Amino acid sequence: MLAGEPAPRVVVAGGHSAGHIEPAMNFADALSLLEPTAEITALGTVRGLDTTLIPARGYSLELIPPVPLPRKLSRDLLHTPGRLRDSVRATGAVLDRVRAEVVVGFGGYVAMPAYLAARQRGMPIVVHEANARPGVANRLAARMTTHVFTAAPRVHLAHASAIGIPLRPAITRLDRAALREAARQRFGLRLDEPVLMVTGGSQGAQAINAAVAGAVTALRAAGVQVLHITGPQRMVEPPDGDPGDPPYVVVPYVDEMQYAYAAADFAICRSGAMTCAELAAVGLPAAYVPLPLRGGEQRLNAEAVVAAGGAVIVDDADLNAGWIETTLIPLLADTERRAVMSAHALAAGAPDVGSLLARHVLTVVAERRAVALRRRARRQLGG
């Protein structure tokens, strides 16, 4: 914004699940870096992770009534119009109180009321869809605005431009090679042996945990270290071994994933949208194991980086200790192939999405102010 102009007032709507909250907060971080005076308000509900994740990132949180949209015909569907009306009214009160100039939505329970309340006020709407299959709220909002952005070209939304997913600055600025030594020391890993990072995301993945645990002997024989992030609900015991064996480090959760990415040479993980975006952005090759639910959405998330040569896909049903021994371990032993995959993953990544989206939102605010200024000038001339 120009010097002397009021701070831009932005409302961010993306709540309930980490998949909606994380890109929303990453965008907010990018906006704050680009325009430190920006007044950012996040919408959330008492359900889900909103009250935990959003305040931890330092942003003001306004709670509104949740409006989950039933996926099947049920008695709950009869109550949805009334719940939505109440939530839109409450959301509108928030927009008025903070004098919002734009709503930036990322889907989830809070997005639909935010879009409708903004539309009632003639307020600009910016939509970002991180998933391969858009939800109901973003599909509707894409018809209300031309400011629509998606994670990938194959995501079908009206008016959409594909830009990727906003990521944390700690990820977008990560130099894995420069941080490698410190990262390995942090986890108690050796500097001279390959590291396989194993993770099923924040909830863990029993299939991945079991397959890797079953291949421990083969991994150790191949000189492969393991950083196993199990998820807090799926802890596994570190396998017994001799003092000279490659370390097998088990942790329930890693708060600063840039250290895990820097320590690792390869990953085996689920293919959530955020995971795929982060690994590509830092150039970490991976074996993706899509969650076999939701109509194959996780497989779609991984397709771009797999097509680019930066990752491989293994079906959940095919993942076992035998696959790790016959397919993954030879890949880990091939330093040249890992380097090529890393370069391809990096080329497929989109690290600067948060800044790109933030600049667009600031442009939308500036255009809205310019329109308002012209209207005032016309009224004064007419008076």
Give your account of this protein's structure:
By secondary structure, this protein is an alpha/beta fold. It has 2 domains: 9-167 and 351-382, Glycogen Phosphorylase B (Rossmann fold, 3-Layer(aba) Sandwich), CATH 3.40.50; 176-348, Glycogen Phosphorylase B (Rossmann fold). 47% of the residues lie in helices and 16% in strands. It is built from 15 helices and 13 strands. It has helices at 18-34, 50-56, 75-98, 111-120, 136-141, 169-172, 176-187, 206-214, 216-221, 257-263, 273-282, 297-307, 321-333, 335-348, 353-382; strands at residues 9-15, 39-44, 60-63, 102-108, 125-129, 147-150, 160-162, 195-199, 225-229, 248-251, 266-269, 286-288, 311-313. Strands 3-2-1-4-5-6-7 form a 7-stranded parallel β-sheet, with helices on both faces. A 6-stranded parallel β-sheet has the order 10-9-8-11-12-13, sandwiched between helices.
What does the secondary structure layout of this molecule look like, with pairings?
Layout: E1 9-15, H1 18-34, E2 39-44, H2 50-56, E3 60-63, H3 75-98, E4 102-108, H4 111-120, E5 125-129, H5 136-141, E6 147-150, E7 160-162, H6 169-172, H7 176-187, E8 195-199, H8 206-214, H9 216-221, E9 225-229, E10 248-251, H10 257-263, E11 266-269, H11 273-282, E12 286-288, H12 297-307, E13 311-313, H13 321-333, H14 335-348, H15 353-382
Parallel strand pairs: 1-2, 1-4, 2-3, 4-5, 5-6, 6-7, 8-9, 8-11, 9-10, 11-12, 12-13
Helix pairs in contact: 1-15, 3-4, 7-10, 8-13, 11-14
